[in-house]
């Protein structure tokens, strides 16, 4: 029996037993547009997604009258090891709620849908970057041991299939257990992740262009720390893709 038929049959059976509801407001989706299967039309329209790529350096959503410069007001004083960032939009409102839902174990399907949405919106840019492989921001083993869901790995797995490029899941490792970045002042975040990451093999990335995947980029400290490790090991260029760009 074809795999696609099995998936369609399984989805139909689940919808019959558990009628689909919006991942954010939990209203019924039975009468909603099928292209946004996990969100209702109202919540999807409130996402305030970036129509263009935003700031090329940090991925922040810019206003319609923002000057076209290599760096924006949010990152003009930063020196990142990665080359460019692209996101769906700023980490606020419904998009923030989606990112928080994606961090939960039950957010698996939401992660996949928004990765597909990301790819559809930024396919040309991603393909123009001409990447060789993908990596993701890793979790420390203590966090994995506690059963924490790795949204970044799930996003990278899905994106690798869309791009048809290998995902080096075990390439980056987190050597040190660090405080949660969300609870720190921006000035402390870079120090928190300094020397926290390492790689398992440099032969896989010599001269390669790598797409680094994470769910949210705020100050850029974590993506920068990972990128510096990759560049030191011989990677050519690092590009970053995130669902949302946090400002603050």
Task: Write up what this structure looks like.
With 248 residues, the chain is an alpha/beta fold. It is globular. The relative contact order is 0.15. Strands 1-6-5-2 form a 4-stranded parallel beta sheet. Strand 5 (209-217), helix 8 and strand 6 form a beta-alpha-beta unit. It has 2 domains: 1-46, no CATH class; 51-69 and 78-245, Rossmann fold. It contains 8 helices and 6 strands; from the N terminus they run ααβααβααβαββαβ. It starts with a helix and ends with a strand. The model is unreliable at 3-18 (pLDDT under 50). The longest helix has 21 residues, at 108-128. Helix 3 (93-102) crosses helix 4 and helix 4 (108-128) crosses helix 6 (151-163).
Distance between the termini: 51 Å
How many helical elements?
8
Quote the average pLDDT.
Answer: 81
Provide the CATH top-level class of the largest domain: Alpha Beta
Write the CATH fold name of the largest domain: Rossmann fold
Q: What's the layout of helices and strands?
A:
Layout: H1 3-17, H2 41-45, E1 84-90, H3 93-102, H4 108-128, E2 133-136, H5 141-145, H6 151-163, E3 172-174, H7 186-193, E4 197-199, E5 209-217, H8 221-232, E6 237-245
Helix pairs in contact: 3-4, 4-6
């Amino acid at each position: 029996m074809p795999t696609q038929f099995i998936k369609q049959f399984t989805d139909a059976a689940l919808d019959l037993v558990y009628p689909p509801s919006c991942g954010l407001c939990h209203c019924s989706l039975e009468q909603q547009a099928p292209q946004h299967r996990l969100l209702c039309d109202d919540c999807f329209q409130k996402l305030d997604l970036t129509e263009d790529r935003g700031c090329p350096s940090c991925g922040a959503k810019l206003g319609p009258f923002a000057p076209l410069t290599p760096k924006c007001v949010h990152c003009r004083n930063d020196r990142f090891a990665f080359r460019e960032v692209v996101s769906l939009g700023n980490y606020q409102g419904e998009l923030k709620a989606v990112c928080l839902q994606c961090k939960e174990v039950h957010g698996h399907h939401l992660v996949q849908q928004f990765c597909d949405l990301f790819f559809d919106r930024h396919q040309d840019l991603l393909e123009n970057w001409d990447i060789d492989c993908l990596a993701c921001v890793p979790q420390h083993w203590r966090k994995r041991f506690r059963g924490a869901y790795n949204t970044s790995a799930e996003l990278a797995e899905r994106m690798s299939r869309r791009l048809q490029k290998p995902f080096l899941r075990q390439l980056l490792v987190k050597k040190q257990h660090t405080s949660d970045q969300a609870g720190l002042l921006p000035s402390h975040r870079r120090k928190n992740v300094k020397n926290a990451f390492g790689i398992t093999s440099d032969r896989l990335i010599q001269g390669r262009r790598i797409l680094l995947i994470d769910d949210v980029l705020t100050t850029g400290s974590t993506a920068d720390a990972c990128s510096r490790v990759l560049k030191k090991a011989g990677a050519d260029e690092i590009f970053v893709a995130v669902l949302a760009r946090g400002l603050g």
